Amino acid sequence: MESSRPPTQLGDQAPKTPPSPSTSTCCNCGGPTTFPPPPQSPTGWPGLSPPPNYRPIRAPAINLPPNNNSQAIILAPVPQSQKVPTISSPFLFQAPSKKIHSLDDLRRFHESGTCKNFLGFVVALSESIRSHKISDPCHESPTTTKIVSILETLINWIDEIPPVQQSSRYGNISYRTWHERLTENSKSLMLQFLPDDLKPSTVEIIPYFADSFGNSSRIDYGTGHETNFAAWLYCLARMGVLKEEDYQAVVVRVFVKYLELMRKLQLVYCLEPAGSHGVWGLDDYHFLPFIFGSSQLIDHKYMKPKSIHNQDILENFPNEYMYLSCIAFIKKVKKGLFAEHSPLLDDISGVPTWNKVNSGLLKMYKVEVLEKVPIMQHFLFGWLIKWE
Question: Distance (Å, rounded) from C-alpha 284 to C-alpha 270?
């Protein structure tokens, strides 16, 4: 009878993809199969099959891990741009401090005008480069030019402080020397572009700047540090040092140079990803360049979200579009199938338009970065970014 055939012969009928001879894991879903593993040759795993050689591709992103925020992201309204209110005298600059210690504190922050305005500033930066290439001419003030020069100085310091030989994969201790130099020189760097009446602001803006490039104790970097850099830019906008007409240059000159600096720090000093979600995250280190980069590509005549899989496009346009630059960098530093090491980005490539990608990423930034206690517990509040 058909039912009396040995189980191992059922593989002739049922599955489209026969099970691997060395595993009892389904190649389609990753779950256990009804087929027992075949007899094993003598190995160091007596009575057991060895670990599978193939790690199945994850389920579609709609089936994220149980504690995900996908529903919150889908239902959230798209953040809107806001004008940044500038300060007026008397100036009450103060050393900023941490205020978020619990979910209640975080909820209070998100209901505040401060949070809405900061996120609105990020949206305004994103809108300023909509449909613009990095090389497009734009208004460049002396302030943005000086900030780019400062970031170039930080890049040069990496060459002056080479990594030491050590056995551990992550966290080269030479980074601490680089970061110490940053801390020692932060005030003099700020004074290069601050007007005289705003020079006392260094007490408040330096902590944001110094924490924009990673943590010297843990030798790591993540989206929290990137958010500090955005907060530093926001403080400069609050003081009127950066104006709305500077926003395009802030992204395509300043932020692009910041991204260059951070990639060099990550590669040279092997910075560990801070709080990375692994394959379930957008990227090990960054978020904002995906927001800005997707805005650049809105209404592009030829490049669509699926174009990230076109190697010719990645090779020819990373210097013009931040999103493509990020994808090219990921493919350079990570081995294996893109769908396996970057499933979220792979799924996003199936979205029909860049406008939808940009809107989704803005909502995701709010939920996955600004609404996470482990990230925002390190965020600072002072007079420029008020705790309300």
Answer: 12
Q: Which is more confidently placed, 314 or 41?
A: 314
Contact of 328 with 283, CB cutoff 8 Å: no
- DSSP of 132-176: --TTS-----HHHHHHHHHHHHHHHHHHHSPPPP-S-SS--THHH
Q: Collapse the DSSP code of 288 into the 3-class scheme (helix H, G, I; strand E, B; otherwise coil) and give the result.
A: helix
The residue length of the chain stands at: 388
Write the pLDDT tens digit of every residue in 278-299. 556 788 899 999 999 999 999 9
Nearest to 331 by CA among 318, 348, 321, 347: 318
> Per-residue pLDDT averaged across 293-306, rounded?
96
Q: 3-state secondary structure string, 335-366?
A: CCCHHHHCHHHHHHCCCCCHHHHHHHHHHHHH
The whole-angstrom separation of Cα 101 and Cα 104 is 8
User: What is the enclosing helix (H) or strand (E) of 223?
Assistant: helix 223-238
How far is the CA of 264 from the CAs of 56, 102, 152, 258, in angstroms? Answer: 32, 34, 12, 10
Residues 6+ apart with CB under 8 A from 35: 7, 8, 10, 11, 19, 24
Q: Is 80 exceeded by the pLDDT of residue 47?
A: no
| Of 79, 60, 61, residue with least CA distance to 70 | 61
According to DSSP, the β-strands at 220-221 and 272-273 are parallel
pLDDT tens-digit profile of 138-155? 999 999 999 999 999 999
**The pLDDT value given to residue 65:** 44
> CA torsion sign, 320 to 321 to 327 to 330?
positive
CA distances to 53, 342, 384 from 331, in Å: 22, 9, 39
Give residue-wise pLDDT tens across range 337-353: 999 999 999 999 999 99
- Per DSSP, the three-state class of 321 is coil
Cβ atoms of 93 and 207 within 8 Å: the answer is no
